Amino acid sequence: MAGILLRHIVDDIAKDFKQVFDDKIIQKSQFAYWVLLIGNRLRAQHISKRDSGAFLSTFIVPVNVHTVNNNPNEIKSRKHIILPKCIYDYDEDKGIEYMSYYVEERIEGCRPPFTNQTFTRTTPKASERLYFSKYETPNPKNPYFYRVSDHLYLLGIECVDVKNIEIGIYSTLDPVTEIDLDAPFDFPEELLIQLKRQVLDLGRFVLLVPEERVNDGNDNIEGAKVPTNKITSVNELSQDTPNNK
Amino acid sequence: MISVQTVVDRMNATLDSEGSDRYLFDQDFKPAINSSVEWLVAVFTKTFADSKLSEEDLKELIVVRLWQANIFSRVHFDPSSTGDDLWSILRVSPEPEVYPQITPPPLVTPGTSSVYRGDLVFVKSRHAARRLTLEQWNENVDNIFEAGNETLLNGFKSYAYATDITYNTAVGGEIEIRPSVAEDFVAITYLKYPEDVTLISDQILLPKSLTNLVYEKALNFISYKQGDQTNLYTVTARDVQILTNLMM
């Protein structure tokens, strides 16, 4: 999917801040970090507002069982999968859009196999109650999962051999140590203007830090440029606010 | 480039010594011109430090050469290999494209010195290493927001180098580059130190625009021999001051 590259955004902001010369004080990686900080926030808001699959990612992940207990979060003999990527922490684990398992040979009619056995979300505490209802009891036809950090423990498939799980998630942007600078930036294009504006505001604030950042070997800060202008809100005032003159 | 003959002719004219043996090239003009060039080197070093002049002002002295770093990602600048004395390093370019296009061969003695590759020509590089102080060199190693960190090796990779240090007395001073470019090519762009004038037919590798300054300062050195409070000393000292102020 073609789109704007992270490199373009970072280079644009570096140019705006005039940090494209040899003695620059802000590296490209730091601009990228700011872009990811703000990008994740805007992206999470965007996904929560739109019923869209534009930012849904699907993975096939193997089912594992820990053989020993290992603190924290690793409990032996429980089937689980590991989240393939970090996800947005929406209410009730809605960063996980769906989870399902299937066996290819069991396709009935034209029904897509991933819709056969989808997992329902629960919690460790609530899962106890499920076993008191015959309609809700976890079983291979009605499996559940609960999340513990990056582990997704599976209920109801203890007695069947499931090797892989399909999972659809709303993942966060890759961290700066892993993201590809030259890959299309997975971000809603219509929000790029907000992203840029907020990164510029953040950078402007950072650049107001006193010049003690400069390594001139001098302990005397007398005469150093200390910003005296008042830092104002980064939020634009509404057009109809009376004080917006 | 400035012709030494031109400078000597002008000096003779000012000294009104045309055709006489009052001032000789080997005894008078040559040491005065060499002193003048050395003095200019000192002035330029200061102006570079203050970022008041760019390297392009000395384009006749800018050279780019290639080395293959040793296994410690270090490069030794050996004047006997390059034929140049090092004045100042202008740019260190890791991962260069070279001509003829070859991949770096394994080093014969990888643990010791780097190898000067005078047989290769620098084409281009997408990277420029930033010079770090020795304290920064240690502290920035894991800081992904500083050049020279060893964590970011994707598109954000940002090189740095530490200045010439003697790590191994058998080798001599070496600059070190990080993230590692062990056994890889490195291009270094540097200012070579202007060679001493030996013959009147030589050229001074300074821009022609500095002819007047070289000549005035050389005359100033000649005036030392003329005794105290000479007119020549006063005039040249003032002219040198004006020219230097314009430069700074």
What this model shows, in words?
The complex is a heterodimer of chains A (245) and B (248). Chain A folds into 2 domains: 81 residues, no CATH class; 113 residues, no CATH class. The model of chain A has no long low-confidence stretch (mean pLDDT 85). The two termini of chain A are 44 Å apart. In chain A, 22% of the residues lie in helices and 16% in strands. Chain A is of the alpha+beta class and 245 residues long. Chain A has a 5-stranded mixed sheet with strand order 2-3-8-7-6. In chain A, strands 1-9-4-5 form a 4-stranded antiparallel sheet, with no helix packed on it. In chain A, helix 1 packs across helix 2 and helix 2 crosses helix 4. The two termini of chain B are 21 Å apart. Chain B has 2 domains: 93 residues, no CATH class; 134 residues, no CATH class. In chain B, strand 9 and strand 10 form a beta hairpin. In chain B, helix 1 crosses helix 5 and helix 5 packs antiparallel against helix 6. In chain B, 31% of the residues lie in helices and 24% in strands. Chain B has a 4-stranded antiparallel sheet with strand order 4-11-2-6. At the A-B interface, helix 2 of A face loops of B.
